[in-house]
Amino acid sequence: MLEHYVKKILQARVYDVALETPLSEARFMSKRLNNQVWIKREDLQPVYSFKIRGAYNKMAQLTEAEKAKGVIAASAGNHAQGLAMAAKVMGVKAVIVMPRITPDIKVQAVRARGARVILKGDAFDEALEHALELIKEHGYTYVPPYDDPDVIAGQGTVAIEMLRQHPDPIHAIFVPVGGGGLIAGIAAYVKYLRPEIKIIGVEAEDAACLKVALEKNKRVTLDQVGIFAEGVAVAQIGKEPFKICKNYVDQVITVTSDEMCAAVKDIFEDTRGVAEPSGALSLAGLKKYVEQTGTKDTNLICINSGANTNFERLQHIAERTELGEKREAILAVGIPEHPGSFKNFCKIIGRRRMVTEFNYRYADPKNAQIYVGVQVKPSSEDRSELIQQLKEAGYPVVDLTDNELAKLHIRHLGGGRTPSDCNEEIYRFEFPERPGALLNFLNNLGQDWNISLFHYRNHGAAYGRVLVGLQVPNGDRPNVEAYLDKISYRYWRESDNPAYQLFLR
């Protein structure tokens, strides 16, 4: 199988449109990690991602009859832009079906390359269903984003370049994983020529379809997929990629959204390139691998797979960067409610630590509850030491550093408490983001329960995040959640979350 794929990769047609991207040394990251870290700059492609390789190679293998029918794909981003450009260069009609939640920057980029864009549905599956209907109606030729041998071969040309650009020993190559086309192509080529090199897949922890498939030795469809890293938000690894991955991928590492945000900053500091979250995914995995294994003095390669991100998202990414680097602790601390208390609290923290955030609202005449961010060293030991130091000084402390409710919502709420007889239940939602989406969300929420709290903030992402308080009479909670299940928004009950209990209850 490897020989078959290596031949296809060597024969792949990509350079009519794709560039041979540089392999850049990440000097700052290399010094920090005590390894030579290299970044393959696929963000420098004409469509700002590696996807142009697979899309063009697939189209180059089509017959004249297939091209004459026109090509179609369902995509929310990078594959759409790659196919649109490939079709324009070849003079082929292209239709791209995109979910309505697709950020406008990506829609306009596809249209600018000459493709017809159809917005349909609120998720990829709905867009794909419509694309398949159009194929039946008009006879278009479907170009898949990853589950195809010619697409895999096109992506595999990344490996040809890396091995030629870096002939010295390589310990491991870290590859972002969505549907699996890129890692399958790289694994096939590298393991055939240099089997000693480790191929390590990196997935978002809430979209780890390859990790689960390898554990169960079969393809599995995830019940839910996280949407922070849109470029790898895939529920099931591709059938063809899995044939390669199950035999030739050495390991899969999962990372959090905060760790991706930190890697976006790392890439910027070393290359001045602005990666999208999925583009920084493999560097986040590389850092985690070094931390977990203690690997030193080796060559490690990761791939910046794309730079198609909304400018509006950068604020949210920047907010989460220090948490991803483990350089900030988020704490709920009780202090006496009298003048000078905050000054005394800062004295306990000491001059070597910086207070990065402080949120407070008067609630009780004796005790104040503060939401505070404190700069710490990038290790759990330093955070633990800080918490212990505060407890020994008599301050009750709750660690909220890994609390999603606290980081997404509580830090932006000015305060205010509910009366004890309010019967409030708290729910956190995700809903497809587009113009009018917030009003649609409120309409779907219904009017059977009074809204006692509401927090929404646009992050420039495909999905909006809302915190809602509902006044629910005793015993009516099962009816509320039965209703919420019907409206099909992802939600979490947060009434018992300590961040809510400490600051809003």
TrEMBL record:
EC number, UniProt record: 4.3.1.19
Coiled coil: none
Taxonomic superkingdom: Bacteria
Pathway noted in the entry: Amino-acid biosynthesis; L-isoleucine biosynthesis; 2-oxobutanoate from L-threonine: step 1/1
Gene3D superfamilies according to UniProt: 3.40.50.1100, Biosynthetic Threonine Deaminase, Domain 3 (3.40.1020.10)
Cofactor(s) annotated in UniProt: pyridoxal 5'-phosphate
Matches recorded under InterPro entries: ACT-like_dom_sf, Ser/Thr_Dehydratase, Ser/Thr_deHydtase_PyrdxlP-BS, TD_ACT-like, TD_ACT-like_sf, Thr_deHydtase_biosynth, TrpB-like_PALP, TrpB-like_PALP_sf
Enzymatic reactions: L-threonine = 2-oxobutanoate + NH4(+)
Domain ACT-like, residue spans: 329-402, 425-496
Keywords: Amino-acid biosynthesis, Branched-chain amino acid biosynthesis, Isoleucine biosynthesis, Lyase, Pyridoxal phosphate, Repeat
PROSITE patterns membership: ACT_LIKE, DEHYDRATASE_SER_THR
Quaternary state and interactors: Homotetramer.
Function: Catalyzes the anaerobic formation of alpha-ketobutyrate and ammonia from threonine in a two-step reaction. The first step involved a dehydration of threonine and a production of enamine intermediates (aminocrotonate), which tautomerizes to its imine form (iminobutyrate). Both intermediates are unstable and short-lived. The second step is the nonenzymatic hydrolysis of the enamine/imine intermediates to form 2-ketobutyrate and free ammonia. In the low water environment of the cell, the second step is accelerated by RidA.
Similarity comment text for this entry: Belongs to the serine/threonine dehydratase family.
Protein name per Swiss-Prot or TrEMBL: L-threonine dehydratase
